[in-house]
Amino acid sequence: MSLKDKNILLGISGGIAAYKIPILIRLLKKQGANVRVVVTEAATRFVTELTLSTLSQEPVCKDIFPDSFSTRDDWTRHISMGEWADAYAIAPATANTIAKLTAGVCDDMLSASFITLRPNKPRLIFPAMDGEMFSSASVQRNLSWLSQNGCTIINPESGDLASGQCGKGRMPEPEAIANIIDEAVKDKSHDSKLCGKSVVITAGPTREKIDDVRFISNYSSGKMGFALAAAAVARGAGVTLITGPVHLPTPDGVDRLDVESTEEMDLAAKQHYRSCDIFIGAAAVADYRPANHVAGKIKKNSKTMEINLVRNPDVLTGFSKQKTLHQLAVGFCLETEGNLQNAREKLTQKKLDLVAYNTFDGKTSGFEVDTNILTLIDKNLEIHELPLLSKKEAAERMLNVIEELISSDKKTSDE
Ligand code: C5P
After folding, report:
1. Strand pairing of 7-12 and 208-209?
2. Domains in the chain, please, with CATH?
């Protein structure tokens, strides 16, 4: 039972489907979960705070500023709620609440604790409203944004609606919601083929020094590599993350090595060639570096200036060239021209087991942004086309394919 001792935060907004939530609370409590409830003002028109607090055995929160403050925690509750929760389910989620979550408005406890929820915790959104409202352009746009930014949207079912009409908009029954929450908090690391594997990931840009104050670099933020590191740790892998200069916190449980130049990244990677099971090159490594690093600051004495560049080592190829049969090499191929053939060639040239062809449009996929569009090509030339996804979700899908490769390799070696 995955719900035992799990902290489940339930957010109720003002829709008629709120009448199902007391039953949901009973089901979650029965399975051993700790349940706390946050409500919007409108939700209290449909279900009373007394009912919710009696069943959850916890006070119900609504306002960020309650009428009286008795303990210090009262005025930081919007933060402690987000830290406490192992999962946050918002059911029912009305069009208004969905819009607030999308825009980052946090004027009540429900929306504020949504923002303070720890980044890797499941955010489950159960929209429930009239069919016309659900299919409206604004609701669909907001749900699509939430889905691309780490939320799981559980689409409403079709059936009788409170408006008297029949259509899409019904929130799933409490038993189904409890199962979805149960699945979301399950510790999947034991089932994963990555459990106990050693994974090395390169991430971010590199800096190639011209003189002591200037360098050549690129726009890579490191977000894709960091998302892969967090997802691999959650599946029970031991992860070493070799990163160029980025502004990202280290995911929990990841062993991080900071480097600056490609040569430093190459040196750090070499230390792990033998011990690692999977090497993922997600770094946007500079292909060239200045041939000479000038000490001090170059003066602007002439109208033009030439910098002589030399090739950098290829970190990923360095690994894949010497890898054994049981090690996997995974790379990225960022293209501005949209040519899958280049990715296929990279797979062969760099002796990879998997390549992620990364489209670059400067808006939804590529550097800096939180979303990505990847097409994965594995060593059997099988293509896995992924839609526009958050980098977190794209990382999960990439790891799924890596797990499939591990399974098929194992089968072949067992035969
Ligand atoms: O050759 P190209 O830069 O297009 O290949 C991209 C892939 O190779 C990425 O996975 C990147 O991390 C890796 N790479 C590397 N060292 C380099 C250049 C690229 O590891 N010097």
Report:
1. unpaired
2. 7-185 (3.40.50.1950), 198-288+307-414 (3.40.50.10300)
